[in-house]
Fold:
Amino acid sequence: MIPNDLDLIPRAGVTDLRELGLNERQIEALRLMVNEGRELSNRDYREMFNVSNATAYTDLSQLMDLGYVKGAGKGRARRYMAVGT
Structure:
């Protein structure tokens, strides 16, 4: 079962993911992972948002640290997906 965006919000009453400290790239990536069941690599993220490797790593790591995303694999094969998928 794939949760919807609201299932990812840890605090009652918060409907804007920006209030949780996420940037627009992270919100869009999370939407794709949750609503469309997509898995993203660091490369996918970089190409989708035209950002550097360091920025992609930082954004994806923050999503993992917050518990919204989990990673599987190592190195270039590492994929990120929404928790619960």
Observations:
- The domain at 19-82 is CATH 1.10.10.10 (Arc Repressor Mutant, subunit A).
- Confidence is low (pLDDT under 50) at residues 9-14.
- The first strand starts at residue 69 and ends at 72.
